[in-house]
Every structure is written in C-alpha cells, then in structure tokens.
Amino acid sequence: EPTDMDIEANQQHTNDSTTSSKKFSLKNTIQTNFGDDYVFQIVPKEDWTSMAVSLSSNTVKLYSPVTGQFVGECSGRHSDSINQILFFGNVLHSCSSDGTIRTWDTRSYQQVSCLNAGPSQEVFSFSFGGSDDNLLAAGCKSQILFWDWRNKKQVACLEESHMEDVTQVHFVPDQKNKLVSASIDGLICTFDTSGEINDDDHLESVMNVGTSIGKVGLFGKKYEKLWCLTHIETLSIWDLNDSKLEANFEDARPLASNSWALDQVDYFVDCHYSGVDDNLWVIGATNSGNLGYFPVAYSGGMRSILSPEAVLHGGHTGVVRSVLASPTVKTGLNQTNGVFGWTGGEDGRLCCWLSDESSAIDHSWISTSLVESRELLQNASIQTIGRSQRPQATSLVA
C-alpha cells in the first residue's frame, strides 16, 4: 500500500445561508482500503503524531492525523472483529471477538504480546488501571476478567454481576481502583478493585438503565459523572459518586431531530466533553452520514438537547462509526495545523476538516467525506473560523 496519496482538487461550496451559521469546506478524504471495509474506531497517540484506525478487515492502519499520510499497519493476527483499540506511548493495544487482547509496537508494526481470554470468549472492551496502572480489566461475555500486566497472569474473574455481554469497562482516572462496567443486561456496575477482587466484597453499586447499553463515558471536573448511550438510542446522565440518575433522555432522537433542519437523527455516535467549559455534547447522525454536535442541557431542572453547535454535512455516504476530536490549542499541541477532527464510517472513509486559522481553534472536530461541512455556532465556548475563511476542499485517496 502506498504511503503517499494522490491529491485531487475538489472545490465544492454551498450557497445556502443559515442564521448563526459559519461554513467551511471539507479539506480532505482518505479512502482506507480498496474494498468494502468499515471504519470501526479512530484513536490518537497522546502527542498527536499518529492515529490508529481499526477496520472490519481485522486490521489496524496508522495515519498522520495532521497530513493524512498512511504510515503503516498492524495486521495478520486478529481472526475476528476488533472491538476496541487504545494507544499507550508507542504501544497500541487491541481487543477482539477472537478472545484476545494484542499489543503492538507501532515503530515496527509487530505484535509484542497477546493475552487470551479463553475458548469461546469475546473481548468487547478493556481498560488499564489499579493503583499502579498495571491492572488490566476486560469486558467479555457476561464476565469481567483481570490480568496483572507486569506478568500477564490472570488475577480475577467477576461473573455474577452481569448476566449478558459486558460491552464497556472503564477505570475512573481520578480513582484508579474504581472500575465502571456496562452490559447488554442494562446494568452499570462500579467495583473497588483494590485487594483480592471478587463479586461479593468489591461490587460497590448497581445502576439500572433498563435497556441494552452500547457505550458509556466518564466526564466532569473530577470524572464524577457518567453518560450512557443505549442500543435503542437513548441517553442518560448519572452521578457516579451516589449512583443517582440525573437526567434520562428516552426521547433523545426526536429532541435532536427537532433542533436542526436536516434529516431526522437516526443514531448517536458518541458524546464529547469539554473540561474547559464543563460542556457535554451528544453526537447525532443520519444514515446518510450527516453529523451534529448537540449540546446536552440537564441542570437546574432543565432537560433538553439544544440546536447543534457544529454540523458536518455531506461528508459520509453511510453510517458513521467513530469521531475523533483534535486536542485544543490549550493543550499545547500546536502541531495539529488547524485540524478539527476525523470521522470514519461504513463507507470506508476517513474524513478530515481543517481551518486555515489554527490559532483561533479552541475546540475542534474533523470528518472524512467528499462534500462539505457547516458549523452552527450558538455557544461562545466553541471557536471556529469566520464566515469568510473557507479553505479549499481537497480529496486524498490512498
């Protein structure tokens, strides 16, 4: 596979005008393959020098998040779908429905270790934590398995807290021994993983969402809150410290659909949190690939999903699976060159949105498609380029 990409001019703009909207064109598109692979997940290296992209071909490809250049791939080991990938320094971890968690050196693109969850197992999610970050937790079928990363030995198995597939596990960053798990059984559990781990003594709390859970995330100044997206496209917000439901958006899709002028929101891809402003957005999308960043308002008795502050319109031609927001300028990572972020989806594309005024970027997101993007700015916490600055669209094809 070539490491350089042909650049093709693709200047397309719309003439429609919307109050409070600012528009800029899609900067480039990367076709990740020569077939029909899906893009499952996009994750960045901490220093933003590389991003990993998992594909439905059981392969992970690496690109420069700034230039879009292909730099290498980790392949030939997983025999089933890759469910999660995670960078840690120069090391990339991946888990799969083949029952393994594999570790890759991204300098050589070679596998350096492999943990096996056992026969007939599937690994849906994993997280590193514990007091010294050497405890590895993995969500499997109805079990949570634990390994000591230093010696790669399994140290515990929780098998009574969930009745169905454990889709998510997350160690809480500010409480390294606290683990959050979520499952198709509709339960979110928290565990204290200090000492010898078991179901009887270490289960701290159970939160009942009531329907199959697809994705959860920790947010808040001290990661004291949790958002939850379900497989029937509902959203709920929980207080993690007292296991209390703060807001339940069973009508999240209609609320989001009614707050913009595009097609109805068919599903939610993810949530995005800004610690600087303490703001939460839910990212909704259409089956045709349009995305919106919808602010979630739930404090003071309010429960609403507001008009989108960013709309990526016309980029993808199918379902979007992953959104990667670039780091803000406040992190000191100025080498992003105005990249807003990346998206990947079932059309096999990575889409990138850029601004020519990178110094003005405070929050950023990117998409990968062939057409254009519109940003609706109704909240000063999000800064993007002005109306008159519309970078030329270019299409990059591998």
UniProtKB/TrEMBL annotation:
Transmembrane segments: none annotated. It comes from the Eukaryota. WD repeats lie at residues 75-114. Coiled coil: none annotated. The lineage of its organism: Eukaryota, Viridiplantae, Streptophyta, Embryophyta, Tracheophyta. Keywords: Repeat, WD repeat. Residues 1-21 are annotated as: Disordered. This is Transducin/WD40 repeat-like superfamily protein. It holds the Pfam family WD40. SUPFAM superfamilies: WD40 repeat-like.
